[in-house]
Amino acid sequence: MVTQEIDTPVIPRYLEILSKEVKIALQVQHRILLESRKTLNFLDFKEFLAPVVGPATDPGIKGAKQISFDYYGKSYKVMSSIILYKQALIRTFDNIYAFSPNVRIEPISNKKSTRHLCEFYQLDLEMRDKSIHDVMSKTEFFLVTLFKKVKRACNQLFEELERDFIVPQIPFPVLTYSEFFDIAQSMDYTISYGEEIPWEVEEELSKKMVEPFWIVDYPVGSRGFYYKENPEQPGTLLTMDLIYPEGFGEASSGGERETDVRKIKQLLHSTEENISNYKWYLDMLSVDGQPSAGLGIGIERLTRYMLGYEDIGNCTAFPKKPGMFSI
Ligand code: AMP
Ligand code: MG
Prior knowledge:
It is built from ten helices and eleven strands. By secondary structure, it is α+β, with helices and mostly antiparallel strands. It has a single domain (13-315), classed as BirA Bifunctional Protein, domain 2 (2-Layer Sandwich), CATH 3.30.930. An eight-stranded mixed β-sheet has the order 1-5-6-11-10-9-8-7, sandwiched between helices. The longest helix is centred in the N-terminal third of the chain and has 23 residues, at 20-42.
């Protein structure tokens, strides 16, 4: 039984939310949310209210568990990501976004992690008929604008923390998965080509960088069934990660969506997923699946990077840290 390994916070959260560190984080986060909305409105994105539960959610969540529950006799899930639902709604508008709540019961091995929560928010973006490159350049513009505005508005708070946050230059550097893989091997990690690169490698590389950078060209099979294979470079997926510098690690994942129902079914069959839960999704794509691309940016991690905080638990009011019972 894992219950013995679960902790309770030393200081109750209702007291900790009064601390200077948390108060500053919540003020800066308020600005992040406000300026994100203003900038995305300027970029012609429509906000929608994200679904919280549904018959299917993102199964590709790296060892974390989903929450399933009985919904009038059917098995429903709490969203671990709204990717499938973005693909449905992008048929209505050109550009959409949502601040979507995600629940993932992270493995107990992430208990010491300072960047994992079991409940977090993603800023989810999706663009119709656009490529991975369109999403990358739009995201760079969005983030740099956001960083400038938040830095200006919260200048005094950054000074209080003595955080010298540097707004990065556009365009961000781009690395391929192969280059990333070679770095992992040179650090003596024994991984096979196509596997997720260990977090420690990402962190080491991130520490050497002064601005965010992209990782592209992940090999087929390394990621979720919803990413499209690159027709110009077979064997690689049109998917990317954005990594923060200074050791803060992964900021975002995304890519171009597969719309070929036959290919998706094949991939789903090779997983342990119950394909009947995806019926609506496959039906929707068969009727009028639209090409789209997008990504999700973790809000607590964005706050953590801007503030330079070690612990993500200080970047939200009610953090659910892995292996911890808290409010
Ligand atoms: P993923 O779908 O796993 O690539 O997640 C998308 C983004 O959400 C990541 O790039 C992070 O910014 C954020 N994220 C994912 N998992 C967590 C977690 N356990 N705690 C906090 N943020 C997370
Ligand atoms: Mg990811």
